[in-house]
């Protein structure tokens, strides 16, 4: 069930009317890397509403930024009047699509089922389930679980040729590696092909979208439908997104950027986008926001003329964080960023936002009877010694919760604690530490 804020945000989204059709907008945004017949696809998407789908496998308890590309892509097609099917793979999640490097560790059915429920909720936040183009959630376990292995081999497997299957890029890479590939993962493309066939039969689905690294799996479905039903359907793949410096997009310090705030806080999420390089920010605006071409081109000009202002990065961070975490969380994050350096009231920050905003700061835990300003500066590592701490105070450089401390003998009390246990200690303008009071 979507919140009123989520429903309102979805209702306010729109495609850019300056494009003649959705296909041209998708291409301008850089969302089409590979496809079946392009002219037919453009005509199809410019015509009467169609049903399309994109699949998400529950291989983790949250979706990530790579999935967000697909979610926003689905929403753009829905805004063009087409009907989305959000597939969360209860069966394919038990198998796992082949990775470039090594075999996946198989999760238990109970874990996969739990993650299916979580991911369905995440997918549902980005689509509208009302009106003529209402979205529908589907789970491929519903049609694979009742099927016996014999039925699967006879009805589906017979339409696949091993010679074709081993030519798929990821399969070929794994076959040529020391790890090899198991029959389990080798069969993944058959399962995904069967998904498309089932959705074609049940809902008249004629388009599948996904990442270009999944192109072999996408075309397994188009080929299967052509063989079994004698008709042509379509697929297109979005490009893999990389940073201009060659590093992998969607990771911060080696960790994936997840959509679940428990795995990546709204503050960390916002900061990730705020740190986007000038060379990448315009492309990110195209892919990850609903901003119009006119607005993005204006921000591109700002990057060229006033890069120090980071106007495009701030707009990007605000828009994407709002899409994923909501406007209230985004505004809390912005307030936290300012409050850390005295441009707002720390007392107004909720505890989750405060902890996220200070997570990367030096920290210390002190006893409740050791709250003298000198002790705090030393314990937090902001001063090397008590004499150095007294000098910081005398020179006017000591702050607690953004309040200047003028007396080296001052002892903080319980009324000074943020959320009953935190103190933000600052030396000068830039040196911060978070102190937690025990007991």
Automatic annotation (TrEMBL):
GO molecular function, one term: tyrosine-tRNA ligase activity
Coiled coil: none
Cleavable signal peptide: none
Reactions the enzyme catalyzes: tRNA(Tyr) + L-tyrosine + ATP = L-tyrosyl-tRNA(Tyr) + AMP + diphosphate + H(+)
Locus of motif 'KMSKS' region: 248-252
InterPro entries: aa-tRNA-synth_I_CS, aa-tRNA-synth_Ic, Rossmann-like_a/b/a_fold, S4_RNA-bd, S4_RNA-bd_sf, SYY-like_C, Tyr-tRNA-ligase, Tyr-tRNA-ligase_bac-type
Source superkingdom: Bacteria
Keyword RNA-binding: yes
Annotated residues for binding of ATP: 251
Pfam families (UniProt xref): SYY_C-terminal, tRNA-synt_1b
Gene3D superfamilies, sorted: HUPs (3.40.50.620), RNA-binding S4 domain (3.10.290.10), Tyrosyl-Transfer RNA Synthetase (1.10.240.10)
UniProt-annotated binding residues for L-tyrosine: 53, 188, 192
Motif mapping: 'HIGH' region: 58-67
Entry's EC annotation: 6.1.1.1
Domain RNA-binding S4: 372-433
Protein keywords: Aminoacyl-tRNA synthetase, ATP-binding, Cytoplasm, Ligase, Nucleotide-binding, Protein biosynthesis, RNA-binding
Compartments, as annotated in UniProt: Cytoplasm
Role played: Catalyzes the attachment of tyrosine to tRNA(Tyr) in a two-step reaction: tyrosine is first activated by ATP to form Tyr-AMP and then transferred to the acceptor end of tRNA(Tyr).
Known partners and oligomeric status: Homodimer.
HAMAP family linked: Tyr_tRNA_synth_type1 (MF_02006)
Similarity remark: Belongs to the class-I aminoacyl-tRNA synthetase family. TyrS type 1 subfamily.
Name recorded for this polypeptide: Tyrosine--tRNA ligase
Highest classification ranks of the organism: Bacteria, Bacillati, Actinomycetota, Actinomycetes, Micrococcales
């Amino acid at each position: 069930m979507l919140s009123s804020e989520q429903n309102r945000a979805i209702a306010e989204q729109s495609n850019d009317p300056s494009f003649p059709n959705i296909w041209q907008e998708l291409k301008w945004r850089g969302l089409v890397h590979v496809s079946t017949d392009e002219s037919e696809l453009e005509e199809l998407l410019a015509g009467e509403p169609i049903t399309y789908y994109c699949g998400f496998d529950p291989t983790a308890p949250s979706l990530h930024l790579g999935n967000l590309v697909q979610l926003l892509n689905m929403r753009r097609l829905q805004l063009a009047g087409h009907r989305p099917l959000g597939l969360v793979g209860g069966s394919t999640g038990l198998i796992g699509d082949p990775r470039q490097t090594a075999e996946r560790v198989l999760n238990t059915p109970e874990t996969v089922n739990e993650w299916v429920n979580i991911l369905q909720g995440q997918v549902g936040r980005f689509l509208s389930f009302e009106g003529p183009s209402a979205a529908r959630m589907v789970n491929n376990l519903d049609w694979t679980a009742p099927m016996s292995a014999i039925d699967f081999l006879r009805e589906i497997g017979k339409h696949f040729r091993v010679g074709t299957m081993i030519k798929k890029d990821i399969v070929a890479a794994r076959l040529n590696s020391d790890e090899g590939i198991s029959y389990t993962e080798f069969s993944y493309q058959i399962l995904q092909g069967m998904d498309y066939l089932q959705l074609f039969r049940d809902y008249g689905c004629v388009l599948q979208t996904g990442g270009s690294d999944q192109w072999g799996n996408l075309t397994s479905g188009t080929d299967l439908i052509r063989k079994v039903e004698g008709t042509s359907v379509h697929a297109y793949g979005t490009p893999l997104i990389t940073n201009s410096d060659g590093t992998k997009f969607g990771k911060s310090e080696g960790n994936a950027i997840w959509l679940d705030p428990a795995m990546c806080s709204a503050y960390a999420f916002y900061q990730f986008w705020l740190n986007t390089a000038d060379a990448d920010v315009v492309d990110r605006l195209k892919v990850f926001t609903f901003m119009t071409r006119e607005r993005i081109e204006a921000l591109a000009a700002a990057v060229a003329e006033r890069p120090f202002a980071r106007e495009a990065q701030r707009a990007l961070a605000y828009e994407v964080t709002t899409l994923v975490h909501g406007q209230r969380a985004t505004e809390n994050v912005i307030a936290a960023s300012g409050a850390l350096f005295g441009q707002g009231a720390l007392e107004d920050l909720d505890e989750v936002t405060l902890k996220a905003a200070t997570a990367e700061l030096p920290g210390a835990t002190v006893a409740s009877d050791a709250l003298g300003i000198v002790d705090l500066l030393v314990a937090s590592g902001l001063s090397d010694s008590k004499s150095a701490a007294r000098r910081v105070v005398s020179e006017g450089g000591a702050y607690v919760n953004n309040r200047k401390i003028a007396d080296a003998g001052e002892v903080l009390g319980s009324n000074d604690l943020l959320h009953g246990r935190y103190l933000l200690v600052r030396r000068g303008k830039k040196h911060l530490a978070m102190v937690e009071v025990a007991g």
